[in-house]
């Protein structure tokens, strides 16, 4: 909104002041009777061209004249009013010269005491002749003329005239102009209009041509501001700017570190510390550390630059004592001479000899302050019983623009804005708001019982200042990682790096990883050169021997159903962290250190198989070696391989006996003997009990019956792990028996609600967990496939 009255351009606030003063005068009883008929006049005047003269506006025969508001109009082509000065007898004076160039001025005054009586000087006007010769009337208009009772005063107006002596010449029409009012915060900024100096803010620039103009504000220690303003005829354009201070940095360090830093007597942090957003100019840095002499230095900060202070502190040779502090309840915050020292109970050591103030604070309790005297090498004791507060807490509602600022209440992090913090102790608290890219804000707030205190802050955005890092290496083309982020390959310059410490890492295949920490200063390029050391890229040495056949048929051949023993290992100067041996991509076993090991496979099916050994050293170098074996099929066979399965108590476990009798042979008799322990019974109808705990199954396999599966069912009635011994062999009529195969079945019986153990063959998992009977069927199916391709020949 404009703060000017539309009639005459006088400020509304000035008129409000006048009105308020009238009301005050009325309330004080300053009442007088209305004046009689009176006169307001301005004299005629004659003046030379090019000079100035001063004339008076008088009120004659007035009684109790308390305030007036009059307008003087004239021909601006003849004269111009350049100064208006109301009489000092009136307490409040408001003179509007903004329209003087257009031919009118408005004058208003108010007397705080009683009204003026008799012949009274209202105002003086200083006139400037603007033409060579001419004449104009000075016309008086009364807007308001009142006594101290606010009654109107009737007055006769006697207008005057001005004659400019000289040759009358035709005055060209004046080019229309306006005015520009310029102010700044802080004031005192140098003002330039279209690069021409116009004074210091606040300033009003008159007679400005109509149109667009540039106004520039400059002040030492602040950023320059340039604005474009449009000037209209007879109007005042306003430029009001808040200047932004130029800032720099101060890097403060000390030996030893941990000294308190005071910047212009304001605590900042402890050394080492980079203090940002410091105003340009001269500042005082003070370092304080217990047991050391204080240090004070003056430092000059320049815009965008970092001033450095590094001090070696001088240790004080003084005697100290201790203070033992406890409270009931414990956990009260301890402040020694205003410095937080932890919580009760605690003994504060290295305290200077003399008198000190101890303050204890705990939420929900009254604060306690005590004075204690410390003597050299002695321990003073303070023990206090805290008094619980009997009043309810209050709350603090905190918001910011922008939102998302971190909130710290008395130094403790609470959340981000907006946030209402409840159960806050009654009393004075400190709220600090922090947000990346914005200046910190700290405010003190008083919390009252049962009430909510409000804190709202508009955060000031910081101008980001960055530096750069130039990185090179020998050899080049090393990958660059800054704070874990990939930045290209050497040589390269990493720009837009925020000031502070950063982690720099270089990686190149065949070379040892290179790490360092680099400190970046705004506006400065740090140069880093790395000499990379060659790395160990040699893989481990692998050993894998030819497998040894476990020849059950004693014929020197590797036949289906037989197993092999494999000796393998690995070694490396840097150490071995992993050795894995795989059979056809399935893991047989793994080791985690160098050495030589032996592993035995399960019974092998017919066909080709790949054995692979893979090793990894401590530098992550890996390699593998492979050998290939072939399993043959040579004649009739039976197979009831080592099998492990799991069932629920009361369920059946199904196993399969596989037999093969090629064409051309006589009928073949196969016999399977099972010896289950207590808790496991055989339920297959093809088995006959031939002794205590012994079950026998005899089957005849006809010639050409290349795959004859025989189902074997066992039921587990007792929870636990059961080992079931088995014997199997085959025989042709009266010919000798084949070698007897001795196998052991492992049966795990669980309660119905326990998880199912995955089916495994020879210790290697071959299927995922399936619930209940489905797991048994899946396990039997996998075993059947293996047995269908596994047959033994007759000796």
Please explain how this structure is put together.
The chain is mostly beta strands and 795 residues long. The protein folds into 8 domains: 12-165, Immunoglobulin-like (Sandwich), CATH 2.60.40.680; 177-242, Immunoglobulin-like; 247-312, Carboxypeptidase-like, regulatory domain (Immunoglobulin-like); 320-385, Immunoglobulins (Immunoglobulin-like), CATH 2.60.40.10; 394-458, Immunoglobulin-like (Sandwich); 467-531, Immunoglobulin-like; 541-631, Immunoglobulin-like (Sandwich), CATH 2.60.40.10; 637-788, Sandwich (Immunoglobulin-like), CATH 2.60.40.10. Helices cover 4% and strands 57% of the residues. The protein has 2 helices and 65 strands. Strands 1, 2, 3, 4, 5, 6, 7, 8, 9 and 10 form a 10-stranded mixed sheet that branches. The model is unreliable at 1-36 and 755-795 (pLDDT under 50). The chain crosses the membrane at residues 770-789.
């Amino acid at each position: 909104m404009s703060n000017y009255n539309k009639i005459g351009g006088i400020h509304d606030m000035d008129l409000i002041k006048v009105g308020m003063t009238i009301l005050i005068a009325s309330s004080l009883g300053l009442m007088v009777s209305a004046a009689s008929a009176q006169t307001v006049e301005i004299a005629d005047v004659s003046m030379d061209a090019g000079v100035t003269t001063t004339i008076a506006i008088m009120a004659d025969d007035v009684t109790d004249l308390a305030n007036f508001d009059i307008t003087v109009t004239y021909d601006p082509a003849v004269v111009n009013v350049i100064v208006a000065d109301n009489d000092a007898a009136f307490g409040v004076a408001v003179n509007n010269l903004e329209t003087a160039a257009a031919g009118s001025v408005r004058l208003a005054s108010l007397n705080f005491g009683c009204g003026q009586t008799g012949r009274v000087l209202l105002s003086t006007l200083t006139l400037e002749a603007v033409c060579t010769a001419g004449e104009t009337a000075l016309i008086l208009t009364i807007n308001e003329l009142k006594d101290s009772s606010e009654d109107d005063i009737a007055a006769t107006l006697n207008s005057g005239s001005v004659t400019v002596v000289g040759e009358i010449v035709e005055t060209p029409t004046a080019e229309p102009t306006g005015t520009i009012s310029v102010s700044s915060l802080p004031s005192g900024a140098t003002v330039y209009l279209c690069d021409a100096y116009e004074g210091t803010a606040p300033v009003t620039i008159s007679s400005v041509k109509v149109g667009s103009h540039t106004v520039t504000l400059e002040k030492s220690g602040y950023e320059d501001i340039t604005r474009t303003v449009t000037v209209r005829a007879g109007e005042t354009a306003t430029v009001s700017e808040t200047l932004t201070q130029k800032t720099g940095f101060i890097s403060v360090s000390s030996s030893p570190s941990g000294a308190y830093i005071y910047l212009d007597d304001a605590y900042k942090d402890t050394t080492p510390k980079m203090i940002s957003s410091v105003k340009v100019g001269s500042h005082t840095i003070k370092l304080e550390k217990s047991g050391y002499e204080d240090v004070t230095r003056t430092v000059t900060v320049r815009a965008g630059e970092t001033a450095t202070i590094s001090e070696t502190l001088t240790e004080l040779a003084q005697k100290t004592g201790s203070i033992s502090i406890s409270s009931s309840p414990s956990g009260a915050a301890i402040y020694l001479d205003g410095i937080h020292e932890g919580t009760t109970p605690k003994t504060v050591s290295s305290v200077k000899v003399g008198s000190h103030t101890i303050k204890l604070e705990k939420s929900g309790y009254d604060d306690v302050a005590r004075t204690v005297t410390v003597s050299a090498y002695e321990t003073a004791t303070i023990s206090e019983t805290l008094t619980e507060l009997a009043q309810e807490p209050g709350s603090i509602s905190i918001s910011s623009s922008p939102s998302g600022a971190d909130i710290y209440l008395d130094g403790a992090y609470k959340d981000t804005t907006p946030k209402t913090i409840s159960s806050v102790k009654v009393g004075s608290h400190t709220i600090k708001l922090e947000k990346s890219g914005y200046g910190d804000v700290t405010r003190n707030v008083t919390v009252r019982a049962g009430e909510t205190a409000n804190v709202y802050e508009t955060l000031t955005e910081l101008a980001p200042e960055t530096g750069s890092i130039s990185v090179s290496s020998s050899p080049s083309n090393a990958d660059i990682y800054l704070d874990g982020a990939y930045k290209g390959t050497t040589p390269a310059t990493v720009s837009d790096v925020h000031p502070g410490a950063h982690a720099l890492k270089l990686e190149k295949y065949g070379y040892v990883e290179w790490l360092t920490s680099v400190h970046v200063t705004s506006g400065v390029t740090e140069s880093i050169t790395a000499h990379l050391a060659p790395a160990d890229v040699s893989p481990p040495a692998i050993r894998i021997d030819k497998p040894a056949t476990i020849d059950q048929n004693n014929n020197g051949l590797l036949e289906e159903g037989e197993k092999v023993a494999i000796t393998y290992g690995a070694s490396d100067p840097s150490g071995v962290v992993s050795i894995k041996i795989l059979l056809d991509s399935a893991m047989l076993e793994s080791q985690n250190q160098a050495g030589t090991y032996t592993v035995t496979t399960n019974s092998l099916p017919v066909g080709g198989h790949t054995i692979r050994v893979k090793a990894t050293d401590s530098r992550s170098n890996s390699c593998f070696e492979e050998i290939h074996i072939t399993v043959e099929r040579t004649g009739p066979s039976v197979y009831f391989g080592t099998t492990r399965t799991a069932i629920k108590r009361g369920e059946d476990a199904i196993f399969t006996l596989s037999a093969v009798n090629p064409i051309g042979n006589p009928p073949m008799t196969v016999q399977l003997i099972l010896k289950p322990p207590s808790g496991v019974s055989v339920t297959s109808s093809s088995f006959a009990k031939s002794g205590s705990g012994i079950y026998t199954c005899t089957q005849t396999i006809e010639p050409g019956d290349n795959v004859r599966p025989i189902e074997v069912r066992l039921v587990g009635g007792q929870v636990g792990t059961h080992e079931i011994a088995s014997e199997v062999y085959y025989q042709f009529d009266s010919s000798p028996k084949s070698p007897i195969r001795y196998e052991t079945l492992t049966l795990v019986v669980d309660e119905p609600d326990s998880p199912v153990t995955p089916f495994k063959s020879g210790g290697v998992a071959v299927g995922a967990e399936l619930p209940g009977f489905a797991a048994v069927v899946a396990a039997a199916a996998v075993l059947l496939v293996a047995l269908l391709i596994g047959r033994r020949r007759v000796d």
